Amino acid sequence: MKLINKVAFIIVGWNNKVLLDECFKSVLSQTHKPIDIYYVDNDSQDSSLDYVKESFPNVKLITPGYNSGFAKGNNIAIEQALKDPDVNYIALLNSDARVKQDWASLIIEFALKKPKAALLQGTTLDYYNHEIIDSTHVYVSLNGQGTQGNWRYHYQRDLGPKKVFGVNAAACLITREFIESQPFPQLFDERMFMYLEDVDLVSRATIMGWDNYLVPKARAFHMGSASSTKNPNFSLYMTFRNNSALLYKNFPLKMLLKMIPQVIRGDIDTVRVLRRMHKKSAAREVIRGRIVGIFRLPLFITKRRKVQKNMNIPEGYLQSLMRNGY
Prior knowledge:
It is a single chain. By secondary structure, this protein is of the alpha/beta class. The chain is 42% helix and 21% strand.
């Protein structure tokens, strides 16, 4: 029986109406067919929903009626999309990201050759300057920080294709096989709401022994921080809050104990830099985020046990992936 390899593109939006036209058109231009588009509107107040209804009538609309965040918003759409048995791939795309016409076809062509592929991305370039890299991969570094691979590096040549620690959810493809094999009913951890939820997901995939890939010729373009710039202190708070859960859930105890001193030093350095820049309120949000994150760790005990039970990668190999992400 021939597989259809249908792709469900999921876009979560919150007051980003001005970005949607170009975003949707980049998806509709994909040479790979068939595709569906799901748009999750997180209670936007800028008439985004009416605009999509009028301009893109074939887009499947999901309206939680409140701001569900990135994690739950995507989970709702993923659950809906996978009711279609022809959907073999979920593509996540930020509203401030665009994909070239052959983005999906190139990644799927590659994924079909990799039976243990979980998440894949192409080379994502800066939307405004295509000579600057936005992301080639993401990883958790040995100091416990979620890190964007090659961010702001000058683009000179393609890296890869290669296996990487993880991918950036601004523009990525996820295989149905992985989604259905991972141990949780929801793909993203909804307790994280937004920020680092994609790093949490790719950490889970890597630790379970699945493979994540960079497919360099598949191009995407990302503006970056379209929502977080509306409240930068909130993004700092959520990043440091969620970092605690990310590390606690996914990494073996021995590795955690080694990372803790480096995490503390990193937090101290971040706070010092922010204070030198006269951003005292931002420094306070870093401290508050870390403290709240530590107190929230009991919420993740059951999930930690499940992840560790499903660990299928040698610790030495995991550490090698954490040095530079591949």
